[in-house]
């Protein structure tokens, strides 16, 4: 750099090389609305699963990428494109072949190969999902010394929700939006959805499975206290059946107790997948077999047929024809009410086992903790027998490697893809067509709050999801979609260089548009190339559906290769004169003028050039108007 400033005027000559780096200056927001924090998706027999990922964004996005960072177990997945054509603020995609483990999920939006925004989901896993069914020795009992998971990485999970039964009448309601919790508390108020009480044996079982496979475990509990096999088989068809101990209709609703299981399969197993149903029931039938009415007894054949009916209905109602079941042997009800074990019940349970039909043998609990403190329920006695813990160990023994090889699981359903449209200034959100019943909700509200059952809604500004229920009753939960409060936002336009030499190619960029960009040239996209031969103004709009923003404009100036400047510049003028090769000055810069000559190769001041006192003149060589 050389600077010369005589006393009568001011001349500055700068010689340098300027490097320009383009980057995104219009930031957008990015959110992950599927999956949910703490979710565990059922792995297949090859120890992998597909994780669906979806969410919303603002601003311009050309693609969305995701990666998984292994936290405990598993194999990390590097940055992978999951959506190369996101549209109208919605993205969706999958990461395939994710190995069993516990991960942090990161998602980032990309525009012009620059990261616009990132979002993180703290934990998501690929592992095991079980649904428990039967009666109270697997449902759980308060204050029986149960233990909880002690995993430091919080990988044993459940959803804390109890199906409502006001005044003893259980409701035919669908579960709420799932809030995933960790089964690491012995609090009496823990409820493993839809009907479990306390952590019972399941925190312990989760931990031992974790020690074997190093994958997270998610439990749901559909067991029902005091239920007989007849209650289960009859309620599977909506037929009334009396509670075996108190004589009135079970749960005051002929759909129960089976409805607990159906809700777990239709909702939770649909969302997360499932390995198997863990069944333990028989104590109530043992008592029935000792009553005064021989016609009310449960024979081995009746137990077999009734449980097979429940299994068959669970498979048909969930559209999982080979849903694995694991059937425990349990009948013990000791003094003072019962007389111990029941051979008919145990025989009936044994008759159900059919490994080729995916019905596997579970633990025998009739030999655990005899006698029992209250006659029937297992208990971890302080300083004594740990009955609940022994049952957890028994389940672990029977869920051996042979079981995991033979029990073919069911994967989680792929969430439905939503689209955001606009016509006549009214936004619409569309769900996939099909044999569905639609339940649209605001935010993460429950299905019971649905405000529309249409496939297409035209809501006001806000965030919405849809629950899709198929003909089997299976529920698929969508990502969230955010409907803007106004029309599409005009894009922010930039250009790779201006001014440029006439006939030189430039790139025009549009940012800040979450819809599609249309240019005055007839082209579309977030960037286009142009070769202006003269100074030209370009415009672009942002569209969602048929709704378009106000046009944004940008001017691209052209300049000559070489120019000779002979006209004077007068007071008050502030100008930058550019050329792609050479500027030759033979003119006068009058007092009060602020003039810059900027040429790529040289600025030549020939005789006749004059910069008067009081003027500011700058000559720059090395930049000019070249792009």
How do the helices and strands line up, and which of them pair or pack?
Blueprint: E1 2-4, E2 11-15, E3 30-34, E4 40-42, E5 48-57, E6 63-72, E7 77-83, E8 90-99, E9 101-111, E10 114-134, H1 136-139, E11 156-159, E12 180-182, H2 202-213, E13 217-221, H3 229-235, H4 258-272, E14 276-280, H5 283-288, H6 300-318, E15 325-329, H7 343-352, E16 359-364, H8 387-398, H9 401-406, E17 419-423, E18 426-430, E19 437-442, E20 456-457, E21 462-469, E22 475-477, E23 481-483, E24 492-495, E25 500-501, E26 506-511, E27 516-519, E28 527-530, E29 536-544, E30 547-548, E31 552-556, E32 558-559, E33 562-565, E34 574-579, E35 582-585, E36 588-589, E37 594-599, E38 602-605, E39 610-611, E40 616-621
Parallel strand pairs: 2-40, 4-10, 10-13, 10-14, 11-13, 14-15, 15-16, 25-32, 33-35, 34-37, 35-38, 36-39, 37-40
Antiparallel strand pairs: 1-2, 3-5, 5-8, 6-7, 6-9, 9-10, 11-12, 17-18, 18-20, 19-21, 21-22, 21-23, 24-26, 26-28, 27-29, 29-30, 29-31
Helix pairs in contact: 2-8, 3-6, 4-6, 6-7
What tags apply to this protein structure?
627 residues, alpha/beta, 11-stranded mixed β-sheet, 5-stranded mixed β-sheet, 9 helices, 35% strand, elongated
């Amino acid at each position: 750099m050389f600077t010369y400033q005589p006393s009568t005027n001011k001349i500055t000559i700068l010689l340098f090389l300027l490097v320009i780096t383009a980057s995104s200056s219009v930031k957008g927001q990015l959110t992950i609305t599927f999956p949910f924090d703490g979710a565990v998706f059922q792995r297949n027999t090859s120890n992998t699963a597909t994780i669906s990922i979806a969410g919303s964004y603002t601003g311009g996005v050309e693609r969305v990428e995701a990666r998984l960072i292994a936290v405990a177990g598993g194999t990390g997945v590097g940055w992978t494109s999951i959506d190369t054509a996101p549209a109208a603020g919605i993205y969706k995609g999958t990461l395939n072949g994710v190995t069993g483990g516990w991960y942090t999920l990161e998602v980032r939006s990309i525009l012009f190969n620059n990261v616009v925004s990132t979002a993180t989901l703290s934990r998501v896993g690929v592992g095991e999902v079980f649904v428990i069914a039967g009666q109270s020795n697997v449902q759980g009992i308060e204050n029986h010394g149960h233990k909880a998971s002690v995993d430091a990485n919080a990988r044993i999970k459940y959803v804390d929700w109890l199906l409502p039964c006001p005044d003893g009448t259980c409701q035919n309601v669908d579960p709420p939006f799932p809030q995933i919790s960790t089964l690491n508390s012995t609090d009496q108020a823990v409820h493993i959805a839809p009907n479990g009480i306390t952590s019972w044996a399941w925190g312990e079982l989760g931990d031992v499975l974790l020690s074997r496979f190093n994958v997270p475990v998610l439990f749901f509990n559909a067991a029902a206290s005091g239920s007989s096999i007849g209650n289960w088989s009859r309620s599977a068809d909506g037929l009334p059946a009396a509670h075996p101990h108190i004589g009135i209709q079970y749960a005051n609703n002929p759909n129960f107790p089976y409805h607990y299981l159906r809700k777990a399969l239709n909702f939770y197993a649909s969302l997360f997948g499932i390995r198997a149903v863990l069944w333990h029931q028989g104590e109530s039938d043992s008592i029935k077999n000792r009553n005064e009415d021989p016609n009310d007894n449960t024979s081995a054949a009746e137990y077999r047929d009734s449980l097979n009916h429940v299994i068959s209905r669970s498979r048909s109602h969930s559209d999982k024809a080979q849903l694995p079941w694991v059937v425990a042997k349990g009948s013990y009800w000791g003094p003072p009410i019962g007389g111990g074990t029941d051979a008919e019940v145990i025989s009936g349970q044994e008759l159900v086992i059919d490994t080729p039909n995916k019905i596997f043998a579970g633990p025998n609990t009739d030999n655990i903790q005899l006698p029992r403190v209250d006659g029937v329920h297992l208990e971890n006695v302080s300083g004594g027998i740990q009955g609940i813990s022994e049952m957890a160990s028994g389940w672990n023994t029977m869920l051996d490697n042979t079981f995991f090889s033979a029990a073919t699981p069911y994967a989680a359903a792929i969430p439905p893809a939503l689209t955001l449209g606009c016509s006549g200034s009214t936004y619409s959100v569309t769900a996939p067509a099909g044999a569905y019943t639609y339940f649209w909700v605001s935010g993460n509200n429950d299905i019971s709050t649905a405000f529309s059952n249409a496939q297409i809604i035209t809501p006001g500004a806000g965030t919405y999801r849809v629950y899709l229920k198929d003909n089997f009753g299976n529920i698929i939960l969508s990502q969230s979609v955010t409907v803007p409060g106004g029309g599409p936002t005009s894009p922010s336009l930039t250009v790779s260089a201006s001014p440029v030499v006439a006939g030189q190619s430039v790139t025009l960029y549009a940012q800040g548009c979450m819809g599609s960009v249309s240019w005055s040239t007839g082209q579309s996209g977030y960037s286009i190339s142009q070769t202006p031969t003269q100074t030209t103004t370009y415009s672009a709009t942002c569209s969602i559906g048929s709704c378009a923003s106000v046009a944004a404009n940008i001017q691209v100036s052209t300049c000559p290769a070489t120019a000779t400047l002979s006209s004077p510049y007068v007071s008050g003028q502030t100008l930058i004169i550019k050329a792609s090769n050479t500027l030759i000055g033979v003119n006068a810069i009058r007092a009060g003028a602020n003039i810059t000559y900027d040429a790529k190769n040289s600025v030549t001041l020939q005789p006749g050039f004059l910069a008067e006192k009081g003027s500011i003149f700058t000559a720059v060589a090395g930049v000019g108007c070249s792009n």
